[in-house]
Amino acid sequence: MRRDGTGRAVDVGNAENETNGVSSANEAHSEPDQRSDRRAMRSRSPAQPGGAGMRIGIDLGGTKTEVAVLDRDGRFVLRRRAPSPREDYQATVDLIARLVGEAEDAAGEACTVGVGIPGAISPASGLVKNANSSWLNGRPLPRDLQAALGRPVRIQNDANCLAMSEATDGAAAGAHCVLALILGTGVGAGICVGGQVLGGRNAIAGEWGHNPLPPATDDIDPLLTNCWCGRRGCVETWLSGPGLADDFRRHDGGATTRVAPVDAKGVFGLAEAGDEDAAAAVDRWLGRLARSLATAINVLDPDVVVLGGGLSNAPIVYRELPRRWGAHIFSDRIDTPVRPAAHGDSSGVRGAAWLWT
Which class is 2-166+347-353 in CATH? Predict the structure, then answer.
């Protein structure tokens, strides 16, 4: 895949290649008649953008990879998950090829393929960059997937896929400008404008999680947090699930006795149960989220903000964000709605499929 000047996903490959490149990893585990059927299926051109065919989406995560087939009306025909290979690039390519083959067997026809990844494709080199699944970085994933699947493939950042899904038929359906945030093990954002992903000239639009966290008096010490990207004090190191849990541990002073380390979900649970240290950690987290998100709203002024990821499931987020962010947004009033992702944890794979629109 390559990108045009707007950062939109551009097809990898061309029609001449669409009859080639069936994954040998798939064939090794198929009976001869199944291999023939699959070759015949892939020799037909998949549905084209805006067409009436089925779409396959792949959501490549650090621990799991999900495949889904959407029918012509955006309904699931199939959803399936498999453990993601770790530290093994070729195994990742092989897994995607196998999942696509199995999905097409279930669909009964050749499909378009869109892939969401925890990184981006460099417009300059065509290689993966900025992936927290570090074994993907520097690899020609678009080229290798085209070769394995024998057709064009569209690839986008996973947060952009979240934005695409929710802008198409989710919590932001009908909105012109959508900002979608992932608040989970990592932190990121995707942007859709006019129903299309805004990737940016350098394919980094929405990389809000690697801006420095805006300080508030003595609320943070940026030197406390080292980010996997090599910087200090990134938004992600404070607002991710591990970031919240780390902040809680730094401040509770070991005053409470616990059988096991507390994760972010546990911090929210303790806060709801009346634990003062946990409640203080959640309060700090909400303040940091409001300040950080305000900077994005000041720049983009979206019509809707959509939240995904595990931390977005906390009801307090939707009560407190609108109350807190006003102090940091440059406007006389803020009418921007903030909504949970309508499609939940399936939004990423749906958005990957919707890259073919």
Answer: alpha beta
